[in-house]
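Lab notebook, page 48
Experiment: co-folding of the full assembly
Goal: obtain a model of how the components sit together before planning crosslinking
Operator: M.T.
Materials (sequences as entered):
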Amino acid sequence: AQSVTQLDSHVSVSEGTPVLLRCNYSSSYSPSLFWYVQHPNKGLQLLLKYTSAATLVKGINGFEAEFKKSETSFHLTKPSAHMSDAAEYFCVVLTGNQFYFGTGTSLTVIP
Amino acid sequence: NAGVTQTPKFRVLKTGQSMTLLCAQDMNHEYMYWYRQDPGMGLRLIHYSVGEGTTAKGEVPDGYNVSRLKKQNFLLGLESAAPSQTSVYFCASSYSPQTQYFGPGTRLLVL
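Observation: model returned without errors.
Model output:
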């Protein structure tokens, strides 16, 4: 069975400090993994994806994620949070033709 | 290039009424998906299509039907709406089962 667990439903950081959003997955196969962002009342936008190439993946807006097979993790990081990063973030695993979404992490950025 | 569009943006139904949500994409994508998003549950796949004339069930298909008569359109139907189908519905498309492009969403309220 495939599943995604986002370990924190809410994360608050101060502007300019690092961001860490945690994601663990389970998959019977070598997975493709994604992070999407959703700003309020908007659709979802792809931040980055891992598809069995380099384990450290760089995405848009300064975000990156590291695939760690031994820990079955795909945590999202950013060195310095910006106010515009406040949004909902979803970790997603693709198996076959189906995507499985985590329940989301709401990121608040405090000025 | 409009990307992925959804019609309508918002709808209120009474229990037992029927309706169809339209998703259209102008990127010549083979794959199209319908999701529902509920608070605290992330996105869950309802149905998907891997090409014109094909459809398949996702995680939560009960109470919904779909059709893909044209490559650019993916219709989601509710034959007899129930309050449990109150949700935000997102359509997505992709060239292959990798990066998805999402529409802006349809808010459905079933009374």
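Interpretation: The mean pLDDT of chain A is 91.
Next step: discuss with group before ordering constructs.
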